[in-house]
Specification:
Elements: H1 10-15, E1 25-26, E2 30-36, E3 44-51, E4 56-61, H2 72-81, E5 86-91, H3 108-122, E6 130-135, H4 137-148, E7 153-159, H5 171-180, H6 187-198, H7 201-205, E8 220-221, H8 234-246, H9 254-266, H10 271-281, E9 286-291, H11 299-309, E10 313-317, H12 324-327, H13 329-345
Parallel strand pairs: 4-5, 4-6, 6-7, 7-9, 9-10
Antiparallel strand pairs: 1-8, 2-3, 3-5
Keywords: Hydrolase
Protein name: Alpha/beta-hydrolase
Domain AB hydrolase-1: 85-328
Length: 347
C-alpha cells in the first residue's frame, strides 16, 4: 500500500492529463439562482440544478466546505443514466460554490429553510414526494428539513452524520482535530489531511474505480479528447476534485467554510425532536448509514443517532470512511435505491 509520502504532489496532480476533466460536464434539465431568506437576513442567492425529468424527486444535500459537483457520480447515475425515472436536485449551500456567502450566523435550521424555498420554487410540494439524502453537515440539514416538513418526506437518508457533535476521543485529540481545520497550511498538506480525514487508507491506495461518463451517457458534454479518462488511484481522483474546488477562489472562501463549520458545530437535535421526526416521517422511511473508519464524525455519533431515532434501516459499515458516495458508491447507490422503492410503495 502506498504511503502518504509516496502520494503525488499537488503539482503532479495538476499536471495529470485527466485533471482538466475532473469535473464532468453534466447538462442539467433545469438550473438557476434563487434569492432566498428574505426576512431571515437575506435575500441572497442559492445556485441549484435539477438533473433528469422523472417523477421521483431526489434531493442531495452536501456537507461542510463541499460543493454540488461532489455528488457527480450520483448526479450521473440518477439524473442522466436514469433521468426518465428520477429528477435529482443538487445545490450549493450558502457559503460555498456558486451560492452567495453572506457574512452572518449560519445554522442548519436556516440552511434547511433555504432548501425549502428551492423545492417550493420547483413546485415539489406534494405529500411524501421528497427522497432526501444528506451527508455529514448535509445530514444535519436533512434532519432539520424532516423536522420542518415531515409530511413531505418519502425517504430520509442520513449518512455519516450526527444529532450533535460530541467529543468521542480525548479532549486534546478533539481540540487538535478542530483547530487543524482552520490553521493555515500548504495546499499539499491541506489535500493529504482532507484525504486522511475523509477516507480509509485502503480505499485511497486502490486503483481509480470511477465509472466515468461516455458518449452514450445522456446530456453529457465530452472533453476535447472525446472521452473522460482515468486517474491511477482513488487518492489521485479525490485530490483532483479537492483541488478543483480549493483553487476556485471565488467559490471556496475561508469565511464561508468557517460559517458552515459554526452551523455544523452548533447543530443539535434532542432525543425528543428525533422521536418526533421518526413518528411523523415514519421510521420505515428512514436510513442511517455510518462507517467505523469515519475520522470526521466518529462512529459513536452514528450509533447514538440510531439509538435515538430508531430508523427502519440502520447500517454500521465496517472499515468505511466518511464519504460513502465516493468510497462505497455502488453500495451507497443501491441502499438509496432501496429506500426510494420503500418510500414510493409506502405512499
Amino acid at each position: 500500500m502506498e504511503s502518504l509520502a509516496q502520494r503525488p504532489t499537488v503539482a503532479e496532480i495538476l499536471a495529470h492529463p485527466s485533471y482538466p476533466d475532473t469535473i464532468w460536464k453534466l447538462t442539467p434539465t433545469q438550473s438557476g439562482y434563487l434569492p432566498v431568506a428574505a426576512g431571515r437576513g437575506g435575500p441572497f442567492k442559492i445556485n441549484w440544478e435539477v438533473h433528469g425529468s422523472g417523477p421521483i424527486k431526489m434531493i442531495w444535500i452536501m456537507g461542510l466546505g463541499s460543493v454540488k459537483t461532489a455528488w457527480q457520480r450520483q448526479t450521473m447515475h440518477f439524473g442522466h443514466e436514469n433521468g426518465e425515472k428520477y429528477s435529482s436536485l443538487v445545490f450549493d449551500n450558502r457559503g460555498m460554490g456558486k451560492s452567495d456567502k453572506p457574512l452572518m450566523r449560519y445554522s442548519t435550521s436556516e440552511m434547511a429553510k433555504d432548501l425549502i424555498e428551492i423545492i417550493d420554487h420547483l413546485g415539489w410540494t406534494a405529500e411524501r414526494e421528497l427522497h432526501v439524502s444528506g451527508v455529514s453537515m448535509g445530514g444535519m440539514i436533512a434532519q432539520e428539513l424532516a423536522y420542518l416538513i415531515p409530511e413531505r418526506i418519502a425517504s430520509l437518508n442520513l449518512i455519516s452524520t450526527a444529532a450533535a457533535i460530541e467529543n468521542t476521543t480525548t479532549f486534546l485529540e478533539n481540540m487538535k482535530t478542530r483547530v487543524s481545520m482552520f490553521l493555515p497550511k500548504s495546499l499539499d498538506r491541506s489535500v493529504t489531511d482532507a484525504a486522511r480525514m475523509l477516507f480509509s487508507d485502503a480505499w485511497l491506495a486502490r486503483p481509480d474505480d470511477t465509472i466515468v461518463p461516455t458518449s452514450s451517457t445522456p446530456n453529457v458534454v465530452l472533453p476535447p479528447s472525446g472521452k473522460y479518462s482515468m486517474f491511477t488511484s482513488n487518492y489521485e481522483r479525490f485530490a483532483a476534485q479537492e483541488l478543483s474546488k480549493r483553487l476556485d477562489l471565488e467559490g471556496f472562501q475561508k469565511k464561508g467554510f468557517m460559517m458552515q463549520a459554526v452551523a455544523a458545530g452548533w447543530h443539535r437535535k434532542s432525543a425528543g425532536q428525533l422521536k418526533e421526526i421518526g413518528d411523523k416521517v415514519g421510521r420505515e422511511r428512514i436510513m442511517v448509514l455510518h462507517g467505523t473508519g469515519d475520522n470526521m464524525i466518529s462512529v459513536p455519533h452514528g450509533r447514538k443517532l440510531i439509538e435515538m431515532l430508531k430508523p427502519g434501516t440502520a447500517v454500521i459499515r465496517e472499515g468505511t470512511g466518511h464519504v460513502f458516495m465516493l468510497e462505497e458508491w455502488q453500495f451507497h447507490n443501491e441502499m438509496i435505491e432501496g429506500m426510494v422503492e420503500k418510500g414510493e410503495k409506502g405512499k
